[in-house]
Write a structure and sequence with these properties.
The complex is a heterodimer of chains A (552) and B (170). Chain A has 17 helices and 20 strands. Chain A is of the alpha+beta class and 552 residues long. Chain A folds into 4 domains: 104 residues, Sulfite Reductase Hemoprotein, domain 2; 157 residues, Sulfite Reductase Hemoprotein, domain 1; 93 residues, Alpha-Beta Complex (Sulfite Reductase Hemoprotein, domain 2), CATH 3.90.480.20; 136 residues, Sulfite Reductase Hemoprotein, domain 1 (2-Layer Sandwich). Chain A has a 5-stranded antiparallel β-sheet with strand order 1-2-5-4-13. In chain A, strands 3-14-15-12-11 form a 5-stranded antiparallel β-sheet. In chain A, helix 6 crosses helix 7, helix 9 packs across helix 10 and helix 15 crosses helix 17. The model of chain A has no long low-confidence stretch (mean pLDDT 95). Chain B has one domain: TIM Barrel. The longest helix of chain B has 12 residues. Classes of the chains: A alpha+beta (552), B alpha/beta (170). At the A-B interface, helix 1, helix 2, helix 5 and helix 6 of A face helix 3 and helix 4 of B.
């Protein structure tokens, strides 16, 4: 994992001092509300329904055990004993006090963490594949590049007041597990025929009010030009993106207005100047960065370890958990374990301080002290020896984190919704809970197979409802909460935005609607066909007919 | 207009007389006859600069202005001011970076308009060396802003972002 050097540490320390001063000036009236707002947002601080919310950055979703312990400590001392992991692989504390936020940031700085640029109209936390560095299908590890981009984008002075927020994802796998085509900039690993390393660059993707799939701006960008090229994109956006209407201010609207070609020409013009210049990343930098992420300290592990093999054969519950929550590591003797934060009855993505401490301990005992946060709001231990899986499973069960539902219906992706967020039109957590309760039966879920259910409490789409195989969006109709249902959304190379099936439903109807959608799938699916593939093949009609009784 | 500005971290008197875009023709003529130094909005500067000594004609750009019109004269322009309509409008930061890094402008680069204490550090990093702050700002206190960070960001004024950490620290 990356370790701060003196420079990084000084930055976060200085930031704490600066923010403490800003909070003091705000509280004694020297800094006006409107002038404080962008400053606090760039430190992750929102004013919410019940209390301020603090969103802490987890760069590219990677945490060390000692950092997770600090998050648990903060949850206990400054919040109500829990935190919420988000779809940007950050963590939110929902009950902090404004006066205490400088102290929280100071605590975070002691473990190389901060809340910088987790909100505001600036470059947000860089995200990647939660299996980065361990996935078998990886072209190369994206994390060194994420770290390079993180350093460049952190307090990048030119880009702190963009027209709107700006999200970057970088993925290294054959399969895209970072939703790169739904980001303002998405970069996918590429290796050219001559062996040069680089990226395919997508631009203008995003969810929110106007969902769009990102378009390919550059088929192959050599890695040493990564920052020059990103800077060119950002500068064009900063100068020409719309600032008159915040709903039309994302880069996707600029790309649409200029057309991809027109936008590309502007970027090329900027890049022509910087290309090959001082912003080129030195080869040595790649080597130095890669060294941070290489794990040469892991002892050899046996793929057919007898303890593991015996447990698989004799314990059905364990085998089931392995089937859903354990993924292949590039080292066959190891596995990638996903700890489910989607246990029925607790809000998706929430973890208590005890669970965080418990996961930190499991990571230290079994996972080389490393934890990842997935954009599906689960926690991942990326380096578990197969022989340790039974013991890890027991440990995870004791913490309530071993629900074998990863990728299944009850692995609901969900924003905090109207229970916490002042932007939300509707609550999302109770609806997610009702769905989880209704479909708790594991045999049924396993029969349905992989299915992504995503839920957002408003059009800002923090729950990524557009890319759920089934998506649910909370809407407001005459001050009542209603829920619009989409199907057919997906991430990955066949990225698509879900289509609305018809008029919205009341909250209590949602489990029933999902039941109907699944009935159509079960009746019409081909052997081995996933729900999402069946939707693609069949189109909306049979689903609509079943849900609305033929009318709609 | 406040007569004091922050320049190179010091509070100094502003010797430039600003001319508004909608100033009366007679007023403009008088000011030009007096010889300046004048800070002129881009259209006026383009129209009247020949009537002044080059060293006495500064130009004021608004956020949506392009740079093409001033580029041929950069070596001679003593002052370019960039106007911030609101402090959250970041276009001026990119204009400054372009002027300094891409086009090699060496004269005074001044931020004017909604210029507040908490942005000074980052404006300075993009190449601004003078600041006409909003009238209600405590200018003396604001001088501390240039020391908000002991760290220097990547890709700041005149720097590459070659990722060598030694280069990042000034």
């Amino acid at each position: 994992m990356y370790r701060y050097n003196e420079t990084d540490q000084r930055l976060v320390d200085d930031r704490v001092v600066q923010f403490r001063d800003q909070v003091a000036r705000f509280l004694d009236g020297r800094l006006a509300e409107d002038e404080f707002r962008p400053l606090r947002l760039q430190n992750g601080l929102y004013i919410q329904r019940h209390a301020p919310m603090l969103r802490v950055a987890i760069p590219y979703g990677t945490l060390a055990a000692y950092q997770l312990r600090k998050l648990a400590d903060i949850a206990r001392r400054y919040d109500r004993g829990y935190g919420h992991f988000t779809t940007r692989s950050n963590i939110q504390f929902n009950w902090v006090r404004l006066e205490e936020t400088p102290d929280i940031l100071a605590e975070l700085a002691t473990v190389q963490m901060h809340a910088i640029q987790t909100s505001g109209n600036c470059i947000r936390n860089i995200t990647t594949d939660q299996f980065a560095g361990v996935a078998a299908d990886e072209l190369f590890d994206p994390r060194p590049y994420c770290e390079i981009v993180r350093q460049w984008s952190t307090l990048a002075p030119e880009f702190l007041f963009l027209p709107r927020k700006f999200k970057i994802a970088i993925a290294g796998g054959e399969e895209d597990r970072a939703a790169v085509r739904f980001h303002d900039i998405g970069a996918r690993a590429r290796v050219a025929e001559d062996g040069r390393i680089g990226f395919q660059v997508f631009v203008g993707g995003g969810l929110g009010r106007t969902p769009m799939v990102g378009q390919c701006l550059k088929d192959f960008l050599p890695r040493e030009e990564l920052l020059n090229y990103f800077e060119a994109i950002l500068r064009v956006y900063n100068r020409y993106g719309r600032r008159d209407n915040k709903y039309k201010a994302r880069i996707k609207i600029l790309v649409k207005d200029l057309t991809l070609d027109g936008f590309g020409k502007e970027v090329e013009d900027e890049w022509a100047w910087s290309r090959g210049g001082p912003g080129v990343i030195a080869e040595q930098t790649f080597d130095d960065m890669a060294a941070f992420f290489t794990r040469s300290d892991l002892p050899p592990a046996d793929a057919a370890d007898p303890v593991y093999v015996a447990a698989l054969a004799s314990n059905r519950a364990f085998a089931r958990w392995v089937e859903r929550n354990v993924a292949g590591h590039r080292d066959p003797g190891r596995a990638i374990v996903t700890l489910s934060l989607k246990k029925s009855g607790s809000p998706p993505g929430d973890a208590t301080a005890e669970q965080m401490d418990g996961v930190a301990e499991l990571a230290e005992r079994f996972g080389a002290g490393e934890i990842r946060v997935s954009h599906e709001q689960n926690l991942v231990l990326p380096h578990v020896a197969r022989r340790d899986l039974p013991a890890l499973w027991e440990g995870a069960r004791a913490l309530g984190l071993a629900t074998p539902n990863i990728g299944l219906l009850t692995d609901v992706v969900c924003c905090p919704g109207g229970d916490f967020c002042s932007l939300a039109n509707a609550r999302s957590i109770p609806v997610a809970a009702a769905v989880q309760q209704r479909f708790e039966d594991l045999d049924y879920q396993f029969d349905i197979g992989p299915l992504e259910l995503n839920m957002s409490g408003c059009v800002n789409a923090c729950g990524h409802h557009h890319i759920g195989h089934i998506g649910i969006l909370g809407v407001d109709k005459n001050n009542e909460e209603y829920y619009q249902v989409t199907i057919g959304g997906r991430e990955g190379s066949r990225a698509a935005i879900g289509k609305v099936i018809g008029p919205a439903f009341a909250a209590q109807q949602i489990p029933y609607v999902i039941q109907r959608l699944l009935e159509v799938y079960l009746a019409l699916r081909h052997e081995g066909e996933l729900f999402i593939d069946a939707v693609e093949r069949l189109g909306l009609e049979p689903f609509k007919t079943r849900v609305y009784g033929g009318g709609a | 207009m406040s007569a004091a500005i922050l320049k190179h971290g010091e509070i100094v008197a502003d010797r430039w007389q600003p001319i508004a875009a909608d100033a009366r023709a007679a007023h403009i003529a008088d000011a030009i006859a007096a010889g300046g130094p004048l800070l002129l909005p881009l259209p006026l500067w383009l129209e009247r600069r020949a009537e002044l000594e080059p060293q006495r004609a500064g130009v004021l750009l608004v956020a949506e202005d392009g740079l093409d019109a001033v580029l041929p004269w950069l070596d001679d322009i003593p002052l370019i001011a960039i106007h911030f309509p609101v402090f959250t409008d970041g276009r001026g930061y990119s204009l400054a970076r372009l002027l300094r890094n891409r086009h090699g402008y060496h004269g005074e680069l001044r931020a004017v308009g909604d210029v507040l204490r908490d942005q000074l550090y980052f404006l300075h990093r993009c190449g601004f060396d003078a600041f006409a702050m909003r009238a209600d700002q405590a200018v003396e206190e604001a001088r501390a802003a240039f020391a908000d960070y002991s760290w220097a960001p990547l890709g700041g004024r005149g720097e590459g972002h070659g990722m060598s950490h030694n280069e990042r620290v000034e």
